[in-house]
Automatic annotation (TrEMBL):
Keyword Cell membrane tagged: no
Record keywords: Kinase, Transferase
InterPro entries attached to this UniProt entry: Carboh/pur_kinase_PfkB_CS, PfkB_dom, Ribokinase-like
Alphabetical list of PROSITE patterns matching this protein: PFKB_KINASES_2 (PS00584)
Taxonomic source organism: Spirosoma rhododendri
A Gene Ontology cellular-component term: cytosol
Start and end residues of each Carbohydrate kinase PfkB domain: 21-279
UniProt-recorded name of the protein: Sugar kinase
Pfam families referenced in this protein's UniProt entry, alphabetically: PfkB
GO terms for MF: kinase activity
Gene3D superfamilies the record matches: 3.40.1190.20
Length: 304
């Protein structure tokens, strides 16, 4: 079924204990759509870039079957840019520089061909922009998944509260879940979030896996122990892309299938951290993905 992702396509400059890069392709929507491309072939993107964004990078997205009709190119403007430096433990990072550029006035335009999307992934942008997307769709998608972050919880809380009433699934990390609900317990935080609107809550715990909450059901997916984490940038978005990509492919939003989607998302995220930026998820094979998913199954399987 058709998937629409709205978010940022950007340039990143990264520094980790393993090295550094100049400008490379980044942005939430980039990671989401690339990850989802391994599952669904009806994969549509809405984002904005400046005229400094190379056609070769757009070609890379197209080669993955990503429809870029909704990628607006603004002449005379520059693409969103973020630079970050990771600490030795790779769990913390410092933002070195942010240039909003075209994202400062992002006004998402939904092409007619995208109007029938059945799955909508709202990548991390301002809640007011995310709500515009929902309002500009002629028909409500079968499933709306929202990603947000601590910045919007802090400075756009009222907008976020309104938006939460309109979505089906919220994806946040453990710190954001606690900040949003002021609950130290993630179980209580998930319950509080469900009162705000989304009836399915995914709480990411980085190297410690992810939790899925729906009704009175809970599922925990482990993270794959990796000897080296090269660059965690985009791992959360890659997770989200694998999750919603699997749901769009199977067109099944049952709790049992969401559990499988969590595993696929976790597998995709485990690839992402193995190289800088989106490099690793640019050239995966079906065999690699299947093998990695099997590792997750073995990791969590046991008998009594």
């Amino acid at each position: 079924m058709s998937l629409l992702t709205v978010g940022s396509v950007a340039f990143d400059a990264l520094e980790t204990p393993f090295g550094k890069t100049d400008k490379i392709i980044g942005g939430a929507a980039t990671y989401i759509t690339l990850s989802a491309s391994y599952f669904t072939k009806d994969n549509n993107l809405v984002a904005v870039v400046g005229d400094d964004f190379p056609q070769s990078m757009i070609n890379d997205l197209n080669q993955h079957g990503i429809n870029t009709e909704g990628l607006e190119i603004r002449q005379g403007e520059k693409t969103f840019f973020w630079s970050g430096k990771y600490h030795d433990d790779m769990n913390t990072r410092d933002t070195v520089e942010v240039q909003l550029n075209v994202m400062e006035h992002f006004d998402p335009i939904i092409p007619d061909a995208y109007q029938d999307c059945q799955y909508l992934m709202l990548g991390n942008t301002a809640p007011a922009i995310q709500q515009k997307v929902i309002e500009r769709l002629t028909n409500r998608p079968k499933l709306i998944v929202l990603d947000t972050m601590n910045l919007w919880i802090d400075i756009a809380n009222a907008d976020l509260m309104n938006l939460l009433k309109l979505v089906d699934v919220l994806v946040v990390n453990d710190e954001e879940a606690r900040q949003l609900t002021r609950q130290p317990s993630l179980v209580k935080a998930a319950a509080k979030i469900k009162e705000m609107g989304p009836q399915t809550v995914i709480i990411k715990k980085g190297e410690h896996g992810a939790l899925l909450f729906q009704n009175d059901q809970v599922f925990f997916a482990p993270a794959l122990p990796l000897a080296e984490v090269f660059d965690p940038t985009g791992a959360g978005d890659t997770f989200a892309g694998g999750f919603i990509g699997h749901l769009a492919k199977t067109d099944d939003i049952s709790f049992d299938n969401m559990k499988r989607a969590i595993i696929y998302g976790s597998a995709m995220a485990s690839f992402c951290v193995e190289k800088f930026g989106a490099e690793r998820i640019m050239n995966l094979t079906d065999e690699e993905i299947k093998s990695r998913v099997d590792e997750f199954v073995k990791l969590s399987a046991f008998g009594l």
